[in-house]
Amino acid sequence: MDPEAVRKYSALHAKPDGLVLQYGTAGFRTKAERLDHVMFRMGLLAVLRSKQTKSTIGVMVTASHNPEEDNGVKLVDPLGEMLAPSWEEHATCLANAEERDVWRVLMDISEKAAVNLQQEAFVVIGRDTRPSSERLSQSVIDGVTVLGGQFHDYGLLTTPQLHYMVYCRNSSGRYGEATVDGYYQKLSTAFVELTKQAFCGGNEYRSLKVDCANGVGALKLREMEPYFSQGLSVQLFNDGTKGKLNHLCGADFVKSHQRPPQGMEMKSSERCCSFDGDADRIVYYYSDTDGHFHLIDGDKIATLISSFLKELLVEVPVYCTKTGVKHLHHKAQEFDVGVYFEANGHGTVLFSKAAEMKIKQLAKELEDKKRKAAQMLANVIDLFNQAAGDAISDMLVIEAILALKGLTVQEWDALYTDLPNRQLKVKVADRQVISTTDAERQAVTPPGLQEAINDLVKKYKLSRAFVRPSGTEDVVRVYAEADSQESADSLAHEVSLAVF
Ligand code: 16G
Ligand code: ZN
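Structure tokens predicted for Phosphoacetylglucosamine mutase (500 residues):
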């Protein structure tokens, strides 16, 4: 570690004057042209984190569902998880340090976090298909190498694939092989095993239309298809050959506009789904015989999966957390089986090591009928990405469950009916004046806001409304639901006026 070399290289990745960025809900995210210094510095930070944890650390270059001009970066911790909160603070500090202070801040972090600088470091890097991603991941590599870290650049990967690689590398091969082929093999084997038992092999379950948001999911799904094609045939739309990333397509577009993506031909009652730009979110939908569009979001995905697991297990309590995968993921880890999904389609199911061992043991021992259930569960464990929510893995789980249970997409949709709801975003001078508690369902500040919301909510039937500052954009999010669409719209509108 040579301070002069760091200074020299840092100057080649200089921070624009006065630019201040925050490590937000899912890392740094902004216009790509403002991120070069952040990438270089996250390369530096990944080396420190790797030395401190004595493990491989991941760096993913992506801005998920944001427009193509944006980019972003997040660090992945040893078990494939999101970066620990105390290191998010270090990341923000380092990203915002003035040029002359970069070395000093690095040394401060090393001291605070008791990093042994003699320790070796290994970093793995992945990126999405944005035009800026290749160059920006090169800046990450500059940061890693200038501090003497070793690295492996996976090139194009979905975000959950990078989480998977990190987890594999730190569990000495027990979780799987840290290659894309290893990932395809592991998931596809579980999928094919699981669906073998589905006797209703009607054509209905054989094909699925997938909108890939013109992102990296298209490349990876296409590569993977031969591995599972005996069980499922996927037809890809918005595969990046024509359209622009996330533009009028993808999970975020479909969820927030409640309409089909451009470029997808939907016939009535066909099962369709959308990934987002880095393939860590998925939502399903179909159009009915009257041509009406029906969205099946993360909540309903969670319901399908938990009702499936419930038949094999017992009781399912429900908990809420703050917005953001990192919060949900940690909550889910407290249980033997933790199912988590955000309505926007990000989620997975986590199994504790103890539960996994027990199930895999029982799959060998039990007598016939119970053994089948245990084997099924064992395959489900292998099919879910245990490191992060994963559109490809979730898609295969959902397809397997629908086939096994003989459920049509309409029957799945009919598990429950959503109340009419509306989400709005409100621009305010400073969104941080709003603080919340109770998993972001109650506003604590500014004074009087929660009381105002309570009064508005009382005016409508079956109503609720929440406000919270966004963790990814400079806006306040307003959510309202009520007995009719008109009421939900009007409540959302009234609440957004109260936010000013
Ligand atoms: C990010 C998060 C997602 C969260 C969303 C909220 C990850 C991988 N993604 O996309 O979990 O729902 O931000 O954004 O952590 P918001 O605060 O702007 O609504
Ligand atoms: Zn994403």
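Residues 421-499 form a domain with the TATA-Binding Protein fold (CATH 3.30.310.50).
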